[in-house]
Amino acid sequence: MRVGSQDVLLPTTMVGNYPNPRWYDGRAFAVYPMGEFVYDAVSREAFEDAVAAIVQDQENAGLDVISDGRVYGGDSPYGQILYHYVARMSGYKLAGPPIGLPIYSTLYAPTCVGEVRREYPFHLATLRAVRRATKKPVKISYVGIQVLAAATNNQYYKETKELALAIAKAFNEDFKELADNGCDIIQLDEFVWPYGMGDWEIEVLNKAVEGVDCQFWVHTCWGNYSGTPGYFPDEEGDREFGAWVLDRRPSSAPAPERAYALFPKVLDANIQVLNYEVGRTGPDDLKPLVDHGWSKDFVAGVIDVKSTITETADEVADRIRSILEYVPAERLGLTTDCGLINLPRMIAASKLRALADGAAIVRKELVEKQQV
């Protein structure tokens, strides 16, 4: 599989949020800059040390592609996924009603009150911190454009598509800056795609990546906020201020369509890699790849991030072998199902090692088979 400028057999990486070192206090030391770290030496040292620690966990595990781990300021890592961006764009007010999406409604929806433009870099400081800590290929994660649009209390644009196009323009500017500074892979986390895609999501995504010299991956998620799988509310479900409240999920609540909701529209996305989980749910969600002729690279999540039990290398290898029935080895990469943020760091690190060790087992088998 192509990773940046090189070909790697069964490359390994991780997705999304990683547990911060416990000394990295989200209130005292997590002041992420609007531009550059210039005057605040304490914040810069703490931030770069935290990133370096997360990079070291990945290096120790033996991962091939190093992720940023989403080290943000503030106490809520999931909240900061959203608020980190709107604080760096014009047109937003950091206040609003609960987000009207199942399992995310404990967060507020920021309000769009004017024209949305990029004012400050989103991830330049993150890229530079990761680059200082590793010589391996680097992957930087962005929240998805549909996620931001869906989670916005829009009081300015006539329709959601207009808002999304404005966000896409801001992202395009940021993507180009990261590409110019040596980013190998940019990953968009579109974790609302499984709930259903309209007629504009792919058009907006393609606008965002237009003219950017970088490899683009899209990760989509079956739900992991507080470790909760995605679901639809039932007709009798409780509602409060227009949003579903976390932990009010009825046992009969239907799950999103998951992978089937992505196709065939995702075939038109100008991306190099699609990624979603297989580890917890099993390989059935790989059938749409075959049914719709997905011919690009695919990165499969093979580590269950909702379980505190670390998989053995052999268990991971078994999952990889089942995926190879749907995706050829030369087009397959491997990762965690989603972010590891809900796990203790010690367990998260052991799961990364299991991922790398399981991939090594299958990689060796494939090489030996070629030599026969």
From TrEMBL:
GO biological process: methionine biosynthetic process
Cofactor(s) annotated in UniProt: Zn(2+)
InterPro entries tied to this protein: Met_Synth_C/arc, UROD/MetE-like_sf
Molecular-function GO term, any one: 5-methyltetrahydropteroyltriglutamate-homocysteine S-methyltransferase activity
Keyword annotations of the record: Metal-binding, Transferase, Zinc
Keyword Zinc belongs to the record: yes
Keyword Calcium: no
Residue ranges occupied by any Cobalamin-independent methionine synthase MetE C-terminal/archaeal domain in the UniProt entry: 10-192, 264-359
Pfam families per the UniProt record, alphabetical: Meth_synt_2 (PF01717)
The protein's name in its UniProt record: Epoxyalkane: coenzyme M transferase
Species this chain originates from: Carbonactinospora thermoautotrophica
